[in-house]
Amino acid sequence: MNRYEKLADNIAQRIRAGSLKANDRLPSVRELKSQMGISASTVFSAYYQLEAQGLVEARQRSGYFVRAGAEMPTNELAASEPVLRSMPVDVSSLVFQVLAQARERDMVPLGSAFPSPELFPFEQLAAGLTRALKRMDPWQTVEDLSPGNAQLRHQISLRYGSVGMDVPASELVITSGAMEALNLALESVTQPGDVVAIETPTFYGALQALERRGLRAVEVETHPRTGVDLSSLARVIDQHPVKACWFMPTFQNPMGCTMSDAAKEQLVSMLATRAIPLIEDDVYGELAHGARRPPPAKAWDRAGWVLHCSSFSKSLAPGYRIGWVAGGRFAATLGRNKLMSSLATALPSQLALQEYLQHRSFDRHLRALRHSLSRQQAACLRLIDRYFPTGTRVTRPEGGYFLWLALPEGVDSLALHQDALQLGIGVAPGHLFSADRRYTRHLRINYGHLGDPRLEGAIRNLGELANAQLKSTTGKSGPIFEERSSRP
Amino acid sequence: MNRYEKLADNIAQRIRAGSLKANDRLPSVRELKSQMGISASTVFSAYYQLEAQGLVEARQRSGYFVRAGAEMPTNELAASEPVLRSMPVDVSSLVFQVLAQARERDMVPLGSAFPSPELFPFEQLAAGLTRALKRMDPWQTVEDLSPGNAQLRHQISLRYGSVGMDVPASELVITSGAMEALNLALESVTQPGDVVAIETPTFYGALQALERRGLRAVEVETHPRTGVDLSSLARVIDQHPVKACWFMPTFQNPMGCTMSDAAKEQLVSMLATRAIPLIEDDVYGELAHGARRPPPAKAWDRAGWVLHCSSFSKSLAPGYRIGWVAGGRFAATLGRNKLMSSLATALPSQLALQEYLQHRSFDRHLRALRHSLSRQQAACLRLIDRYFPTGTRVTRPEGGYFLWLALPEGVDSLALHQDALQLGIGVAPGHLFSADRRYTRHLRINYGHLGDPRLEGAIRNLGELANAQLKSTTGKSGPIFEERSSRP
């Protein structure tokens, strides 16, 4: 982390924690120079970054001030309220129906699961692949079968090493994206009928994976900023025969929440004590908006109970389908399951990533990507604030590219989704994010499509549709699906 | 098919059927010219091909004669004898142990599942990929998600069309190799605990897939030349609640047998009548040694009960991991299962294959590949005949790159495998090819490694090891695993 990034990060944290409040003036360049001995250009760079993130604003001749709404908003969502019984999962049909619509290029992709493909270095990846294929030894088609190309695994291991994590290359299995990694992890630690603990709301892909394997889900209370509530988890484990947890401790989908380092450490040790495997989905981990990449829970895994899954699909190379899993004590089982399920991962993709990681600066690309996403989040929040109904609550994640919105009572987000489709706008209705479809007035909004000129119009349209629903439902019939919880 | 290929094919079939016998003289060029009105060069080309295949030989000043041993050998294996009860499958550990050893480059790869990687046009594939990546639209990373790149599916559909099969692109799902296709097919038509009918002996990957999904296997009598015995299948279906069949009707692994067109047609209609899905593994279909590519069973699928799986991994592009499934009436379910299991197939690999199929001659490559494999089979059969114990029986497949050997009673092929390892030779012991490990004196030999100068020495060593076992077991203890069937 650069000096200016450190400074910006430090100030951002104080704003989010509320110790710097709206309209507070930031220290002047001169003050910081004398207090901390840092150069004027460092201070300017930090303030410029904070401004781009929408956290501070320059007022003419007065200096830099904390923006109104930059602190953790008063309209923050409350922690989710889990359903206490475990339940079978049946959400796939709805998910497929919604996702199929998100594939169309003409649709404003607010419901998409992917950031804009224009954010990625495809030319550099292609150039590297061309070089690598020229050197390729035909025997690699045999030798680079699972667990995968040794140099690629080495590069991934090195990258973990650079944030202080010891993940040896021998623990890694290269997979066809994180989705395969997660499915293999689930297969390695559960049998059909078992109970798996998940966050609520949670990534619909996790729900589908549970459904596909015939597993039961039990939900754990999840805070929109700090993630899994550990005392709720302890209760769930006491009351249910939980065979595994499937969590996203960093920049969770859909809420964007991140557990603190201390909470991650405690989570890992709590589960290790009870011999419960943790399937960690870390696909958004590299997309921190600040300069610090929060360490995955795997960083505290000494006993090997964490099956850590990730990929390059969100951070570097969508479409290449390169993911991996560090399986801890389950690594050997995982490797065998990979061989049985798809034998091996595509060699050209492996070579392209290996070549890129060895010869290009992944960090330089990530810096630009993170900065873009951060700036775009601020813009998207402003539009939501302007156009959405009063009483709409929204997350303000420190990474990733999703916002999670709770609209006022009376809005049905599935109906909203259907109306929006007519206008060529895709959104992900809250119904997708729990086994019992109870997030009926929630939306996940993707802000990862920078520079799409249709963005403002689409958000305005969505806001108008929601307001129209509110007017028409006042005193009329309720939403399409009965709401089972009034919170969040 | 060229004129000379047709002629050669016709003669080869007559030799294999026994109507032309060892030492029979083939018609002279003049005779054929006058009888059939074909040119001398056509006849010479046909005879040259038959000679290369080891079926005929030129004798000085006398003309061409059928080689001794070219007819279907008298030492042909008998049809397999299935176990009549269904049984759970537990063969994975042994398979992994054996396969891990086959990965080492120093090992003579007689046990490998892959032909020599030096047989494939990697430079052309790479050049096509480079061109395709230059043109790639970043949005393809979203649009070419499952079911896969539309042009690639179109090319595959066209190829089926060229052999008279109607497989629309919309029925195809692109997968990470055939292994994923087969697993997705199995998942789409079975639940854990169901009974699946398989050939015996059968591909260990099928056994692993059944084991992984908790399915029970029931075996069907399989002839080493003509494949699945339909009356045995009818009995099995009457006696067991068979939920699906998993067969390789063309160039089966390990025996290389191929069902006749008529038998395939009858198989498809028998299963359709009973509403039983057929999972067809056709990965070796393109590797016919003669000029005719036997049509897959799918060619007769009018009611959509055939889930036809294949890939380019054995025929064109190992390591690229591009397979597909034409799911018939299960196509939509298959597409959803693909999305849930690994989301999508690697885009660079899809583009490379699409580009190759569109701009290069797959058929020209295949002609050279088939010719090489055919020549090498003849050489390998001669070596086995020379060095293996008297009484060894062996298949003579018309495609693929495997021989299946039954050694005399007293040989244990797992012990042979272990002894061979010490000499740097890999083989696939028969134990891998049934759920109850009963092919204890059988070997699968890969002859797809052309030009490996170690081949003759390795076959000689194997023969010596087998002969030594026979000497030492005469009057001594039996093989490591008790043999449960005396046939084949």
From TrEMBL, chains A, B:
<dbReference type="InterPro" id="IPR000524">
    <property type="entry name" value="Tscrpt_reg_HTH_GntR"/>
</dbReference>
<keyword id="KW-0032">Aminotransferase</keyword>
<dbReference type="InterPro" id="IPR036390">
    <property type="entry name" value="WH_DNA-bd_sf"/>
</dbReference>
<dbReference type="Pfam" id="PF00155">
    <property type="entry name" value="Aminotran_1_2"/>
</dbReference>
<dbReference type="GO" id="GO:0003677">
    <property type="term" value="F:DNA binding"/>
</dbReference>
<keyword id="KW-0663">Pyridoxal phosphate</keyword>
<comment type="similarity">
    <text>In the C-terminal section; belongs to the class-I pyridoxal-phosphate-dependent aminotransferase family.</text>
</comment>
<protein>
    <submittedName>
        <fullName>PLP-dependent aminotransferase family protein</fullName>
    </submittedName>
</protein>
<dbReference type="InterPro" id="IPR051446">
    <property type="entry name" value="HTH_trans_reg/aminotransferase"/>
</dbReference>
<keyword id="KW-0804">Transcription</keyword>
<dbReference type="GO" id="GO:0030170">
    <property type="term" value="F:pyridoxal phosphate binding"/>
</dbReference>
<feature type="domain" description="HTH gntR-type">
    <location>
        <begin position="1"/>
        <end position="69"/>
    </location>
</feature>
<dbReference type="InterPro" id="IPR015422">
    <property type="entry name" value="PyrdxlP-dep_Trfase_small"/>
</dbReference>
<dbReference type="Pfam" id="PF00392">
    <property type="entry name" value="GntR"/>
</dbReference>
<keyword id="KW-0808">Transferase</keyword>
<dbReference type="InterPro" id="IPR036388">
    <property type="entry name" value="WH-like_DNA-bd_sf"/>
</dbReference>
<dbReference type="InterPro" id="IPR015421">
    <property type="entry name" value="PyrdxlP-dep_Trfase_major"/>
</dbReference>
<dbReference type="GO" id="GO:0008483">
    <property type="term" value="F:transaminase activity"/>
</dbReference>
<dbReference type="InterPro" id="IPR015424">
    <property type="entry name" value="PyrdxlP-dep_Trfase"/>
</dbReference>
<dbReference type="InterPro" id="IPR004839">
    <property type="entry name" value="Aminotransferase_I/II_large"/>
</dbReference>
<keyword id="KW-0805">Transcription regulation</keyword>
<keyword id="KW-0238">DNA-binding</keyword>
<dbReference type="GO" id="GO:0003700">
    <property type="term" value="F:DNA-binding transcription factor activity"/>
</dbReference>
